Amino acid sequence: MIPYQTKAGKLPGTDDQEVLKQAQEIYKRIKSKSRRKPYIRSAYFNKQKVFFDFFWRHLAEKKSRKVRTQRLKYFNYALELVEKSRNEPISKENPHKRNETLHRFAGLTKDKELFFVQIKEDRRTDTKYLMSVFAPK
């Protein structure tokens, strides 16, 4: 797997509310482009839509504010990676649901930090969802 080199900047801030506010501003711009469900188009999936249905819910499930803040800082990188990367992800079938495939894309920040973006694909409806963005431990 070859990581995608991003050009976007990391969301600044130390407090989770600061970073969340900036991430929501970016999300608001994406949301305003669509009348229904917000989405971005993925270069790897031939410009198919990738929806945000699970991203915010998954982020809210994280108990630690520190973990949420760290993941939100990579939000800008995740959007760029999904929109522009044509690099092959690691794909595997979801062990809990047979009709889902999980795709994990790798990316590098400007500072050469590695991060991953996970996208869930429902094979029955051929719908993609942005699940998570995170840095390896």
What percent of residues are in strands?
25-35%
Total number of helical segments?
Answer: 4
**For the report, how would you describe the main beta sheet?**
7 strands, mixed
Radius of gyration: 14 Å
Q: What is the terminal separation in angstroms?
A: 18 Å
Q: Return the average pLDDT rounded to an integer.
A: 93
The percentage helix is 25-40%
Q: Which residues form runs of ≥5 with pLDDT under 50? A: none
Counting structural domains, the number is 1
The count of DSSP E runs of length 2 or more, i.e. the number of strands, is 7
What structural class should be given to the helix and strand makeup?
Answer: alpha/beta
- The protein's oligomeric status is single chain
Order of SSEs, N→C? EHEEHHHEEEE
Query: What characteristic shape results from the CA principal axes?
Result: globular
